[in-house]
Amino acid sequence: MLKVDRINCFYGHVQVLRDFSLDLAPGEVLCLLGRNGAGKTTALKAIMGLVRARSGGITLDGIDLVGMAAHEVPKQGIGYTPQGRRLFSDLTVDENLQVGLMTRAKGAETRERVLGLFPLLRERLHQRAGTLSGGEQQMLATARALCLEPKVMLLDEPTEGLMPIMISKILDIVATLKEAGVATILVEQRVESALHVADRVAFVENGRTAEVVSPDHLRADPSLLHHYVGVGVRK
Ligand SMILES: Nc1ncnc2c1ncn2[C@@H]1O[C@H](COP(=O)(O)OP(=O)(O)OP(=O)(O)O)[C@@H](O)[C@H]1O
Ligand SMILES: [Mg+2]
């Protein structure tokens, strides 16, 4: 359903993605792993139209996303939680959720379902997002993306700064979405946790998808992790 075909992206003169490709089927969870600076975040930004692809193609269900205005991309049904969140910090929790709902004209039913997943946010509906704790902001960013009723979720290190129980909660949500046919690209440093939900793992190296393997393959050959991510991987 989502196809990224040999895109090339630059910041100024510096090329960051080099013939970067991936594809994603409905209900599939693809985990992107790679060293800091490999280009994972840039790949998600390119899909969202936040970084231009100078060449190559990006399509969702055959609709061309390259050249689409960045504010139109979420309306196609792509929920995105950027690395380091990026909420409207002067708006309340509830207003942030409303922004998500409005993007695809969703209403009270969606809002209730999302709040059901994050009861903690319900207690803080009128608090300004900027005053939430780091973990609460991460939950709100995920909740807001879910308010789109997305076909595809792009999660850039969604568990960063969360306590273990919330980490498993976020990954449970990915699994629940999967059952509903939602496809997810998950950038995650916690390899072990990510492997529980991933269908495939794509290693990003120097702006390219160097290798795509199954979680079983990776468990059987941990040297891949060492090669592409280096030592010191957080479990
Ligand atoms: N706005 C920018 N301007 C210039 N260079 C940038 C910009 N954003 C990212 N880069 C550079 O592009 C490269 C890829 O960055 P990117 O954020 O995609 O990496 P990443 O794989 O997500 O890394 P991390 O694991 O640290 O989040 C890095 O060398 C980074 O310094
Ligand atoms: Mg990143």
Mean pLDDT: 93
Give the names of the bound compounds: adenosine-5'-triphosphate, magnesium ion
CATH homologous superfamily label of the largest domain: P-loop containing nucleotide triphosphate hydrolases
User: Could you describe the largest sheet, including whether it forms a barrel?
Assistant: 6 strands, mixed
**CATH level-two architecture of the largest domain:** 3-Layer(aba) Sandwich
How many strand elements?
10
Oligomer state of the chains in this structure: single chain
Q: Which CATH class of the largest domain applies here?
A: Alpha Beta
Radius of gyration: 17 Å
pLDDT < 50 stretches:
none
User: What is the spatial order of strands in the main beta sheet?
Assistant: 6-7-8-3-9-10
> What are the secondary-structure elements, in order, as H or E?
EEEHEEEHHHHEHEHEEHH
Strand content: 25-35%
How much helical structure, as a percent, in the residues? 25-40%
Topology:
Layout: E1 2-11, E2 14-24, E3 29-33, H1 40-47, E4 53-60, E5 63-64, E6 78-81, H2 93-103, H3 108-117, H4 119-122, H5 134-146, E7 152-156, H6 164-179, E8 183-187, H7 191-197, E9 200-205, E10 208-213, H8 215-220, H9 223-229
Parallel strand pairs: 3-8, 3-9, 6-7, 7-8
Antiparallel strand pairs: 1-2, 1-4, 4-5, 9-10
Helix pairs in contact: 2-5, 6-7
Bound molecules: adenosine-5'-triphosphate and magnesium ion.
Adenosine-5'-triphosphate (ATP) binds at residues 11, 16, 34, 36-42, 83.
